[in-house]
Every structure is written in structure tokens, then in C-alpha cells.
Write a structure and sequence with these properties.
It is a single chain. Helix content is 32%, strand content 0%. With 60 residues, the protein is mostly helical. The radius of gyration is 27 Å and the shape is elongated. The termini are far apart.
């Protein structure tokens, strides 16, 4: 059984068909700096359970 070989141009075409185009390059001036912060680990002192429930993101 003979092994099929492709030229570089054919391999490039097959890669393009399989994976598509790469996304546009992000330039350094298009980037933003992020600051990592820690989320609060405990409720503020003095809150009763109703106030805590009101602060939860899933509360309606």
C-alpha cells in the first residue's frame, strides 16, 4: 500500500479547510490591564439573615 504525500501548499489548504482562519492578532495597544482582587469571604458584621439574603446575587 503506497503512502500518499502532499505538497506544502496542499497541506496548507487542508489545514485551512479543517481549522479555518486564525482570529485577528490582538495588538498591544488594544490590550487592557486587569487587576485581580479577592472576593469577600465573610458577610459584613451586624447583618441579619434577611439582609444577607438581599445581598445574594441569585436573590430576586
Amino acid at each position: 500500500m503506497a503512502e500518499e504525500s502532499f505538497t506544502d501548499a496542499e497541506m496548507a489548504f487542508l489545514r485551512h479547510v479543517r481549522f479555518g482562519e486564525l482570529p485577528r492578532r490582538v495588538l498591544p495597544e488594544d490590550r487592557v490591564e486587569l487587576t485581580e482582587i479577592e472576593s469577600p469571604r465573610a458577610w459584613p458584621d451586624g447583618l441579619n439573615p434577611e439582609q444577607q439574603q438581599a445581598l445574594r446575587p441569585d436573590a430576586a
